[in-house]
Predict the structure.
Amino acid sequence: MGLLQNVIFGLVTGSYIAIAAIGFTLIYGIVNMINFAYGEYLTIGAFVGLLTAVTLPLPLPVAVLVAMVGGGVASLVLARLFFTPINHTGPVPMLLTSIGLGIALRNLIRLAAGRNARYFDTETATFRLSGVPDVPVGPFDLLGDFFVTSEHLVVVGCAVAVFFLLHGLLTRTDVGIAMRAMGDDEDLARVRGVDTQWIRDSVWVLAGVLAGLAGVLIAIQTNVSAGTGYSHILQILAAAILGGAGSPYGAIAGSYIIGLVLSLSTAFLPGGMTELSSAMAFLILIVVLLVKPSGLAAQEVREA
Amino acid sequence: MSVADRLPLGDAAGNGALLLGGLCVLLAAVFALTPLVVSLPGSLYVFFEVGILFALYGVLVLGLDLQYGHTGLVNFGHVAFFAVGAYAVAMLSARDSFAGISLGLPWPVALIGGIVAAALLGAAVGATSIRLRDDFLAVATLATAEIVHSLFVSFEGIFGGNVGIGSIPQPVSDLAGDADTAMLATILLFGGVMLLTLAAVTRLTEAPYGRVLRAIRADELVTRSVGKSVITYKMQSFVYGAALAGLAGGLFALYTGAVAPGYFTIQVTVTVWIGMLLGGAANHRGVLAGLAVIMGLRLLSRFALGVTPISADAFASVRLVVVGLVLVAVIRYRPAGIWGDAEELGVDT
């Protein structure tokens, strides 16, 4: 497998990490919390998509949309139940709450779905009751040296669409501009007439929608199990911090760096050490915190 | 300031723990070294197993409380230091293990090696991350624990991969007459070690040294402005906590006779954190009591498993759902813990 192939895998991985990392970093920037349960929102989206596409069964684009709605609803409901009531207590109680919530959600999903990985397009998906939606698979050669699957194109295409829509949202709509204002200075935004609670809820919904999309894309690209979210959360976190926590554009850049590093490191690591490629993401995270704690875009994280 | 200056004679509680701890260790030695044997009813085994684990986690929670309760350092990778202590002891002391490195050194040497290894990791993590804002320190330490975990899994030639390292000497079992006596001696020994740790950290935190730590937690800027080197104190507190975790890990390895990555997951960190928050951070006996409540739940759930019709696998998930929600509930409804001082911790209740 050539280096170019790894670059393609890296871009695909970077794409779904980026979709998730934007949501994660918006929560960080506006609600001011590191949400460790966010990985579980991806899992929720993936299973909602899987249920829609495989159990009902509805066409794949519908399933993706339902997964996004499911992610958004779950995110808002969980925020209202668990995070909004303790908003005033500061970042550490919020972080610890999200860790507890993440463990609870992960195991609830495991109870409901079992331990095995589920796929959209193979016979191991026990969610399937009747016909499988048509996810066109099959690599088609471009240069003989590497391949691009239709799933790859779907993932990257969705990511690019998200980037454009997000940019439009943040620069052209009242909600988006209010979000940016709150990210800069919440008190100032409030005295200028921004309904901060409404904006916060919007951010939760938006982040959940993005998590749902990222989750269902991961499920289409590879598979999904109860542990999917947790296995991605540190990558998302690394991408968001690398890009400068709170900055959506930084998160996109950070995600592609993480994606490429993960993918290229598997090319150089000996077999049986694939676990180490995820350790690479955490190593990048620590190195970034050490060398340039503010990430690619600035926001103060050191205090001493 | 030397270590001796930081350790005044201590208060009544610290001395009580010291005496009781010493007594436990002596009793353990009696059971382990003399031909005296006991036989325990089989129904008590589960209490002894959980009790032994409680004593080890007790040492962990006391170290964590030094870091978080007193100094305000949010270490969410405590299991990493526990694991490094255990693995160092395993690698240094195991006799021709089936996997990984086994040097076959005497166990006391290995135990010291385990404590030193954990302390060194603590110093490394501290040097890189201790200046970070609270929530980012939590993230950095959690990532460290995940890295350590994946290193243990990945390097089979060194750490034995998923199989881990076996044939670690079990000094208590080797000395004691039979399995029941060994169990009683182990719980007495580890309980004694936990009480001695309690005495040591109580003395440390009752001393002026402890007041500096709590001042750092309360207001770092003010502490720095009165001329205390905040970073130095934070580093010391972090390394002490890591070394205690290394001690607990080393004892764990010498008790089980085998280590594997599966013993050292984030669940360990979560258990000690919940114990600490539930009991009330910065209150040494409180955190031990909180841990006892959580470990008691574990014991209850073992019995509940016997009478519920669901599978052990599903039951494990249910238990973790409860554990996660307990963490959420404690932070929301008892932010200072059951025995914690809300005013001193600076939390709203």
